Amino acid sequence: MRFLLDAEQREFARSLDGLLASSDTPAAVRSWAAGDHAPGRALWARLSEAGVFALAVPQRHGGLGPLPLDLAVAFTELGRHAVPGPLVETVAAAALLDRLGDPDAAAAHLPGIASGKTVAALCLTALGPYALDADAADTVLVVDGDVLRAGAAPGPVQPSADPARRLSRPSSGGTVLARGPAVASAAAHAADVAALATAAQSLGLGRALLARTVEYVKRRTQFGVPVGSFQAVKHRLADTLIALEFAEPLVHGAALALAAGSPEAGRDVAAAKATAGEAAHRAARTALQLHGAVGYTDELDLSLWIRKARPLRDAWGTPAACRARVLAA
């Protein structure tokens, strides 16, 4: 199996990196955390023009996919730039509606997701009672057992380790879109897509934290020399890099397994999610330690990345749950 990206995928990653680097994502993150969604929605529109959300939607509904590997490429860049919003949940909702096989439900939501006009929040109650950014979503989908509902009202926003991850418990209302075994099967597939996208986000987040930390230790001096010249600092950074390098082929391999419909795709996704989440968390701890006291300040943009690492590690499958799934496969 070939895990290397082709030239087109590498160019797609570079184009997204350039787009996001010029978009002042830290300001969008801070506004999103304060409940002002306008800058984040403007950024969402630019991402949709680049085709990010269309990657999760089949061509018959105005999309380009589903293309799991390209989706992983995109979400690595979204994580690298700490883009706010229910990005994962929107593409997972697209995967659920596509797999469900209900033409009316698909026609009602998928074209809007592909075009970027529909922001979706998704709650699978088997995995937890909360939906991310339901207050900012155009539609809230809830799967409770074998019942899929749409239009549930978001509850109050709950405190979060990452202020830009606005969690709320959807109401029990809404319209029933479908019920039966097909719903449970589609929800399981959507959870795998969400876990893969979150793993890719973690990978990009970890790489951004490492790059910023390397740059900082080259400039910060102690005893008249850069702290990056200290052996202990070099070892810490090398361990972080190795963890991220090890995670990347697992993320790409899981995407290829999903694309091929492999019966072992769930196991591969779980392995990628655990490994990438732990690697990003390691990168966050390294960044915090090597930046010293300045790393704790909210004013430093780096804090926006650091505070995402643990929530992403645990979202859509904690490391313990993912490891248990790998062992049970």
Secondary-structure map with pairings?
Layout: H1 7-21, H2 25-33, H3 38-49, H4 68-80, H5 87-100, H6 103-115, E1 120-124, E2 131-132, E3 139-144, E4 147-150, E5 167-168, E6 175-179, H7 181-219, E7 221-222, E8 225-226, H8 231-260, H9 265-291, H10 302-314, H11 319-328
Parallel strand pairs: 1-3
Antiparallel strand pairs: 2-5, 3-4, 4-6, 7-8
Helix pairs in contact: 1-4, 2-3, 4-7, 4-8, 5-6, 5-7, 7-8, 7-9, 7-10, 8-9, 9-10, 9-11
In short:
The chain has 329 residues and is α+β, with helices and mostly antiparallel strands. Helices cover 59% and strands 9% of the residues.
Number of strands: 8
What overall geometry do the principal axes of the alpha carbons give? globular
**Strand fraction band?**
5-15%
Helix-strand string: HHHHHHEEEEEEHEEHHHH
- Sheet with most strands: strand arrangement: 1-3-4-6
Helix content: 55-70%
Terminal CA distance: 20 Å
Unreliable stretches (pLDDT < 50, length at least 5) are none
Structural class by helix and strand composition: alpha+beta
